[in-house]
Amino acid sequence: MKLLKKIPLKFNIYLLKELSYILLLSLGILTFILVLSRLSKIADLVINKGVGLQDIFALVLFSIPPYLTFTLPMAFLLSVIVVLGRLSTENEILVLKASGVNLKWLFVPIAFVGLIVTICGLFNTNVLLPRFSGLFKQTLIDVVKKGISVDDKEGIFNDTIPGVVIYINKVDTAKRSLSGIVVSDDRDKNIKQTISASKGFVHINPETFELNFVLDNGTLHRWEKATDTYRSVSFQNYTFAMNLSSMAPGAGVTRKLAYEMDHKELKAALVTATSESDRYDLLLEIYKKVSLPLSSLAFIMLTIPLGVKRKVEGKISGMLYSLLIFIFYYILIAITDGLGKNIHAPPIIITFLPNAVIAAMGIYLLRNLNREEHVTISQRLKYLWVYCLEKTK
């Protein structure tokens, strides 16, 4: 109750509404921008492969959690700086000061939103991301299979695989067997080959996207253009293999990456890891599943003084501050990761060190939070730049 007396309840609710609105808006925009990188590749499945919209929506949905790891803390950072900057621009912060309110009580509504964002981030990195990454890969395999299916089309020339034309005279759907098979392979410009077989079947390896035509009783005709050599070979059993990973957006080997694993999978991979470097990377990923979501709490310390002190610099400066801070944060992560590997520092310290640096910077700026200053942060940076130039002369 003492906290509520410091700042009116209506103002707390008002601030929560503003933060929630900007947070959700920026989260949606940032996530959509990052997902766009995959949408262009996924759209090819609709245009060229005839994949249904239901599968496309599933792929888009399952590809969101990896980006939420970054966009959740960034959206929170942006929302706090923009909202507090607007309050400062419209002199609402000045009114609070004139009313004798300690601006440090702004932590109450902001920390509440930050805590919710942190919980969502922890749920995303530890539950949604591992589960949705598996669903994404499985859906992608199914989509690719639909796009390149050759065992359900009889009596037509199938050219869904680039450089390969397949003709199947008869398909036995019950036995999954094919008869009257002709395959024309022009993938290599220097080698032209045509394979015909009386019967066979198709198998796709979901782990490597290898498509294997297992053929019986046929003939292979091969022309090597460089040496102008023609070969003809009869066979009883022959396997014609093709790798289709290039046909799937982001496909290849469907083995989970370290950041896509849950704790059980990471611990299992840690046991089987052979090199010390791989073990260290896996330990970093285990702790990052906690440290990255907790970055929102560290940003609270820094965003409040930056937002309050922005004065009349506009909304664009708020976005710029957020972007620079976020870039600085991930530069810290890259530096500490590399440093940790070189000096063999404990992974738990390395992963939480960037959060500690951000929080320490915020605590330092919070000292003068209630002091009224007429110099903006950008002006301070300009003064610092001029001072450094004068010293160099």
How does the SSE layout of this entry go?
Layout: H1 2-6, H2 9-49, H3 53-62, H4 65-89, H5 92-98, H6 107-148, E1 157-158, E2 164-172, E3 177-185, E4 191-205, E5 210-224, E6 229-243, H7 263-272, H8 276-308, H9 315-343, H10 347-365, H11 377-392
Antiparallel strand pairs: 1-2, 2-3, 3-4, 4-5, 5-6
Helix pairs in contact: 2-3, 2-4, 2-6, 3-6, 4-6, 4-8, 4-9, 6-8, 7-8, 8-9, 8-10, 9-10
Task: Fill in the keyword field for this structure.
393 residues, alpha+beta, 60% helix
Sum this structure up briefly.
The protein has 393 residues and is an alpha+beta fold.
Low-confidence stretches: none
If strands are numbered along the chain, what order do they take across the biggest sheet? 1-2-3-4-5-6
Mean pLDDT: 78
Tally of extended strands? 6
Output the number of helix runs: 11
Write the element-wise H/E pattern from the N-terminal end onward.
Answer: HHHHHHEEEEEEHHHHH
The helicity comes to 55-70%
Number of domains: 2
User: What is the distance, rounded to the nearest whole angstrom, between the alpha carbons of the first and last residues?
Assistant: 57 Å
Query: Which geometry do the CA atoms define?
Result: elongated
Give the biggest sheet.
6 strands, antiparallel
Strand content: 15-25%
Rounded to the nearest angstrom, the radius of gyration is: 29 Å
The structural class is: alpha+beta
Task: Describe this structure as you would to a colleague.
The protein has 393 residues and is α+β, with helices and mostly antiparallel strands. The protein folds into two domains: 2-145 and 256-392, no CATH class; 162-243, no CATH class. 60% of the residues lie in helices and 17% in strands. The chain contains eleven helices and six strands. It has a six-stranded antiparallel sheet with strand order 1-2-3-4-5-6, with no helix packed on it. The longest helix has 42 residues, at 107-148. The two termini are 57 Å apart. 29% of the residues are buried. The mean pLDDT is 78.
